[in-house]
Specification:
The protein has 11 helices and 4 strands. A 4-stranded mixed beta sheet has the order 2-1-3-4. The longest helix has 27 residues. It starts with 5 loop residues before the first strand and ends with a helix.
Length: 220
């Protein structure tokens, strides 16, 4: 795999792009990152992801892999000699995929609604978000990481969201640490890893990005 050409079409605040950055860092894969302007999408992005026209897209030797969770699995399968992300046991693999799916279908939407809504709708979103966090805390249990002792697939799927928590808390007016201390302990443990720390943007920078979006959408 030494001569592989790996390109990542990305956008810095995307928690989905962060998944691929972390997975590639864990595997120590060298790649070229191309930052996309989502208001003016590049011909390469439209060519490589003609169906959804979204980032992130992993391009491996000219072939595109779209959708972040699928791309993380691909990275794990192709560069399998280092830092395995998915468990070997079929049942445990299925559980890891279940929680990644939960994060995409439930967690992302409730977080997004906190900063895109106001009033009662926002309160409902905040309640839903905290409930999701508590469900995830239950799945984590007393383990250091979701898959047990080792950083793995569900951790990669989830930790990127942590860079948005300051924005969620600012607009939702709540404290994650007060509501879900185990979750924050897990997040801080993940942040001690170079692969994570170097892949996640500063939380204050994300808040500024969200403030810009709220003005653009006329929420503020």
């Amino acid at each position: 795999m030494a001569n592989d050409e790996v390109i990542l079409l990305d956008f810095w605040p995307s928690m989905f792009g962060m998944r691929l950055r972390i997975a590639l860092a864990e595997k120590e894969v060298k790649y070229e990152s191309k930052e996309e302007d989502l208001r003016n999408k590049s011909p390469l992005l439209l060519q490589m992801n003609p169906v959804h026209k979204k980032i992130p897209v992993l391009i491996h030797n000219g072939k595109p892999i779209c959708e972040s969770i699928i791309a993380v699995e691909y990275i794990d399968e192709v560069w399998k000699d280092k830092a395995p992300l998915l468990p070997t046991d079929p049942y445990e693999r299925a559980q890891a995929r279940f929680w990644a799916d939960y994060i995409d279908k439930k967690f992302f939407d409730s977080g997004r609604k906190i900063w895109t809504t106001k009033g009662e709708e926002q309160e409902a979103a905040k309640k839903d978000f905290i409930e999701c966090l508590k469900v995830l805390e239950g799945a984590l249990g007393e383990k250091p990481f979701f898959g047990g002792d080792n950083f793995g697939f569900v951790d990669v799927a989830l930790i990127g969201f942590y860079s948005w928590f300051f924005a969620y808390e600012t607009y939702g007016n709540f404290s994650t640490e007060a509501e879900c201390p185990k979750f924050v302990t897990w997040a801080k443990r993940c942040m001690q890893r170079d692969s994570v720390a170097k892949s996640l943007p500063d939380q204050h920078k994300v808040l500024e990005f969200v403030q810009t979006l709220r003005k653009k959408y006329g929420i503020e």
